[in-house]
Amino acid sequence: MDGLSLVDSVGNDEAVIATNDDAASCKRCAVALGYWHDRYISYFVRSTDRKAPEINRGYFARAVAIKILVDKFIEVNNGNCQIVNIGAGFDTLYWRLIDEGKSVKGFVELDFPGVTSRKCLYIQRTKQLLQAVSDEDYDVKLNRHNLHGHTYKLAGVDLRNISEVEAKIKESDLEYSLPTLFLAECVLVYMTIHRSSQLLKWIAENFKSAFFINYEMVNLGDRFGDVMLSNLHLRGCDLAGAEACQSTETQRKRFLDAGWAGADSYDMLGIWARLPPEEIARVTQIELLDEQELLNQLFSHYAITTAWTDHRWSDVQL
């Protein structure tokens, strides 16, 4: 990274990469129980252990809220937009959008090469996944870490290296002038504030009309937050960017300081209250919840932050 050691950003990249497997496994469990529909997650995670009800509800709230925001952005732009999924892991958003007939001009996924190589392999081996990224007039280009389809691109990259990110974005044929949605789920927190700020500033300076959805920890300064940090530390996942996760205000401030025109941030308690009532009624019947307080604690320690460089997107909210 610009000739500097990466040790200052993440002490153990392998431990961070392993969080993708954890998240995919949790999504697979919630989908299997009927929290939301995703016929593609099983291609990336064959089986999983049963998760606690509060974990399943937490992933439901996260998945549904993000999908609502993505759908709104696509709708207001009539599909004339792009999506960049940062630290995408085994996310299946592209395929779910295709199923729903929601097309965009370009869809790019970025992650560590150790993750994208596995995703490339799964896509190559699975007819349903490969067909969706193929086009009769466009041959899919595939190597160990990267896949280039007609509108879908998957690229292995170290997000802490801005020049590398810029090169991958250029290779992906994205247009800087088109409205572009950036999505990150528990990604920036594993980078130092300096590195994540560099990335956010680069996006704000280069994309004429950008909208960002960031799902991440928040309120880490209390006892529950201390336990979260301690548990992650034991797994080798020190949160180098925890400073930006102290409150919803620090989450907003990180974007404003990086040159974004505006930002909003709400913890998942507030997000849960904004989800469709009929969906809340449905999922609360799937599993009994012994301790509502534990779910409330989890919800109060995660947040969704939206930011924009173009004030037209300030209304893309839940």
From TrEMBL:
Any GO BP: methylation
Q: What is its EC number?
A: 2.1.1.233
What terms describe the molecular function in GO for this protein?
protein C-terminal leucine carboxyl O-methyltransferase activity
Q: Which UniProt keywords apply?
A: Methyltransferase, S-adenosyl-L-methionine, Transferase
The UniProt record gives the binding positions of S-adenosyl-L-methionine as 62, 87, 158-159, 185
Root EC class: transferase
| Gene Ontology cellular-component annotations | cytosol
UniProt catalytic activity: [phosphatase 2A protein]-C-terminal L-leucine + S-adenosyl-L-methionine = [phosphatase 2A protein]-C-terminal L-leucine methyl ester + S-adenosyl-L-homocysteine
What top-level branch of life does the organism fall under?
Eukaryota
Under the heading PANTHER family, the entry gives: LEUCINE CARBOXYL METHYLTRANSFERASE, LEUCINE CARBOXYL METHYLTRANSFERASE 1
Its function, per the record, reads: Methylates the carboxyl group of the C-terminal leucine residue of protein phosphatase 2A catalytic subunits to form alpha-leucine ester residues.
The UniProt similarity line reads:
Belongs to the methyltransferase superfamily. LCMT family.
Query: What's the protein called, per UniProt?
Result: Leucine carboxyl methyltransferase 1
Species assigned in the record: Cherax quadricarinatus
